[in-house]
Amino acid sequence: MTITITAFEKSPDGGKGLARDTRVRWALEEVSQPYAVRLVSFRAMKEPAHLALHPFGQIPTYEEGDLALFETGSIVLHLAERHAGLLPRDANARARAITWMFAAVNTVEPPILDLSAARVMERDKPWYEDRLPLVMDRVRARLNQLSARMGDADWLDGAFSAGDLMMVSVLLRLRASGILDEYPNLAAYVARGEARPAYQRAFEAQLAVNTAPPKG
Ligand SMILES: N[C@@H](CCC(=O)N[C@@H](CS)C(=O)NCC(=O)O)C(=O)O
After folding, report:
1. How far apart are CA 45 and CA 215, in angstroms?
2. Percent of the chain at pLDDT exceeding 70
3. Among 57, 73, 116, 141, which is disulfide-ready with 46 (CB 3.0 to 4.6 Å)?
4. Looking at residue 214, what is its pLDDT?
5. How close is the Cα of 63 to the center of ligand 1, in Å?
């Protein structure tokens, strides 16, 4: 059955892999599933056809036969449960890997998104310079804890899993801020994720969309 995902017709990051279709592409590549991509404009994302797939008018979405999903955590979990390679077989190890997926999107991603939002949307506010260090310190608080837990391990809990896929995807957004470099073990962890052939294929695919010459 053909899998179709949606992605930005023109990503705001110009193809640096920060748009969330990259993590879904990465999961698809890890489990060797071919997929089609439907590109959507910002306007189309808010129109009824797309809202029927994604109630919040965002990308990515995932369609497979009768099934339509949104939320990258859910899409990656769906793929990981149906195909070998992203979740351990042992039930407890599997539950722990899923826990790390939730930790990525629920605990680590929020302060990182707050930092991105501050940089993009609050730069012109008179309180921007005062607030920014507070937002950055909230990111550091989480990274201190994550870094302490990781130590010198390659992955979060044994072999690479969907938990790592989600965590690396979330941490990648920090690169431009320089904060990641304050944590050599986390910077190395992200680099390990990016070095995976499946990530490379996913990244190249989304970059190609964003660097293609305009049609017509
Ligand atoms: N929690 C959602 C977030 C989805 C999301 O924020 N998508 C962004 C692109 S990375 C988007 O569509 N932004 C445009 C908008 O919200 O209008 C997920 O993980 O799928």
Report:
1. 20
2. 100
3. 57
4. 76
5. 17
24 lines ligand 1 (CB under 6 A): no
Total residue length of the chain:
216
Indicate whether residue 180 lines ligand 1 (CB < 6 A): no
pLDDT of the residue at 119? 93
In which residue ranges of the chain is pLDDT below 70? 216
Alpha-carbon distance 122 to 138, whole Å?
17
**What is the pLDDT at residue 213?**
85
For residue 37, the one-letter residue type is V
**pLDDT of amino acid 215:** 72
1 in helix, strand or coil? coil
Q: Are residues 72 and 60 in contact, defined by beta-carbon separation less than 8 angstroms?
A: yes
pTM over 0.85: yes
The pick from 13, 38, 53, 58 for probing ligand 1's pocket by mutation, whose C-beta has the most ligand atoms within 8 angstroms, reads: 58
* 171 CB within 6 A, ligand 1: no
pLDDT at position 216: 67
Whether 22 is in the pocket of ligand 1, judged by its Cβ within 6 Å, is no
**Ligand 1 centre and the CA of 90: distance in Å?**
32
Phi, psi (rounded to 5 degrees) for 74? -70, -40
Rounded Cα distance between 108 and 139, Å, is: 8
Question: Which residues on adjacent β-strands are paired with residue 5?
Answer: 37, 62
Residues 6+ apart with CB under 8 A from 10: 41, 210
Distance 158 CA to ligand 1 centre (A): 30
Ligand 1 atom closest to residue 60's alpha carbon, by position in its atom list: 20
